[in-house]
Structure formats: C-alpha cells, structure tokens
Amino acid sequence: MPKRDDIQTILVVGSGPIIIGQAAEFDYAGTQACLALKEEGYRVILVNSNPATIMTD
Questions:
Q1: Domain regions of the chain by residue span
Q2: What are the protein's UniProt keywords (predicted)?
Q3: DSSP H helices in 11-53
C-alpha cells in the first residue's frame, strides 16, 4: 500500500489500564507500532490512560 502524503500525524490510542499480567503485551505492541510509524516518517501522538505504562518512555 503506498504511503499517503496527506497524513503527517497519527494518533495511537493505548489500551489503558488492564488486569494485572496483561499490560506488558499491549504496551509492547503499542510501542512497536509507534516505532514503526516514526520510521515511516509520521509524527506520532500517543494517548494512554494507564499510569503504569512503558509506552510513553
């Protein structure tokens, strides 16, 4: 799929607070998504309401 030139910024919405033991998988997936989008040249805005997340590091 070709990269769209009309999109410069992408909003990534995190999973938020999850039960204990599941947050790491969602954090990892979100982090990898943000890194991949940044490598493609997009500006990434991350919103995640989980105070224990590692996505915002």
A1: 1-57
A2: ATP-binding, Ligase, Metal-binding, Nucleotide-binding, Pyrimidine biosynthesis
A3: 23-39
